[in-house]
Amino acid sequence: MEEKKLYINGEWVKRANDDVIQVLNPASGEVVGTVPNAGREEVMQAVDAASKAFDTWAALPARRRAEYLRRWFDLMREHKESIARTLTLEQGKPLAEARGEVAAAGRFLEWYSEEAVRVAGEIIPPSGEKKRIMVLRQPVGVVAAITPWNFPASMVTRKIAPALAAGCPVILKPASQTPLTAVAIVELAHEAGIPRGVVNLVTGSAALIGETLMADSRVRKITFTGSTEVGKMLMRQSADTMKRISLELGGHAPYLVFDDADLEQAVAGVIQAKIRNAGQMCVAVNRFFVQEGIYDAFVSRLRTALKQIQTGNGLDESVTMGPLIDHKAYQKVLDHVLDARELGAGLLCGGNGRHEGGHPEAGYFFEPTLLTNVTDQMKIMQEETFGPVLPLRRFETEEEALLLANDSRYGLAAYVYTQSLSRGIRVSEKLQYGVVGLNDGGPATVQAPFGGFKESGIGREGGHHGMEPFLEIKYISIGL
């Protein structure tokens, strides 16, 4: 069992009162580590450290900041296997998926080490002979990054890397269910020699830490990934100090399969967009719309593919889908299935869960579940399930498919399968979603902007667009 500490001002520190949070293996309920339950004093120390580090870090030449990030990336590659194992132990996803996530996390450090040197200003033609206009892009200030449990490696670097590249020190608050991966990554930041106060890590109560960070005017930027409900709360709290805020929130992704789709490709896309991480993704598909002419053939192939999924402990290399994160997650998935069944949905496969390990908060697994004849009255068609349940509905026309797909308050990700280039472009443009996978079940990548429309969030992460939320624009008017 690993006993971890807080990381504040370049040092690993322990809470004075020894109050800790136990981290459970979601597959077995085994305690795999502990982290301190930070109080307001420790959070304020982290803010003090980041605030003190800001001027020096912001003034450092971009090439120097890039070198620190590149060194951190190199260490991530070197320690990929150990971080992946830690990730699987505390989050549950299969080890192969964990390795892929750690590799992706490293790529954010690499990408933003390269973007750091590309932040440039402008000289704008003046309106008079005795004036000059200069525009600077400067770091916004101290950043608080709040990350979720479902991708405990990639969400950390996706937020920290552009902030550091822009010249902003960071205070990281990882999810209490999966903090050990974040600690392992920050340990490598320390090894990379990143200066004191530039990266800080606090663990503990989301409510207490969040409230403390939101109330402090020295924290100029909040970047958060999590539920829409919490995102709205943070948005309200940010108003008091006018913090800049980036939110990557919940989703309710539609998956449109047209008559001319490549069936093999469409079924493979489902495994990537729904079964990966046991469906515990904001971009996971929640509603499947299949055109009438291909419906039966698609369902037959999909059912066969789902029956081949092996659930179990992610450390077992034969396992292709791990556990749900905790009992609450399991109950929500089960509730959605029971509600759909009571309202007339058919069950083609799955529908069962199991509990292993004896711990009341861990060891919950749910079979990949295929539901048919779903209607809008069912919870699963209105709420984000966050589990491996696939509700299927037929459609006849392209117009009908778009109406069904866009009928949601969410707008994070959508998926379209068709072999028609014209239809693919037409439908993709009309979908009210920030990310569209056109014949692609895994569209997220470091070099492209990621984020949602409507109640799925504000701002973008990834690509050169991911630098903008951490930069202010300053206009200097010069009289000659």
TrEMBL record:
The entry's keywords: Oxidoreductase
GO molecular function annotation: succinate-semialdehyde dehydrogenase (NAD+) activity
Superkingdom as given in the UniProt entry: Bacteria
GO biological process: gamma-aminobutyric acid catabolic process
Domain Aldehyde dehydrogenase: 12-476
InterPro entries attached to this UniProt entry: Ald_DH/histidinol_DH, Ald_DH_C, Ald_DH_N, Aldehyde_DH_dom, Aldehyde_DH_Superfamily
Transmembrane segments: none
Keyword Oxidoreductase annotated: yes
Family per record: Belongs to the aldehyde dehydrogenase family.
Name used for this protein in its record: Succinate semialdehyde dehydrogenase
UniProt source species: Anoxynatronum buryatiense
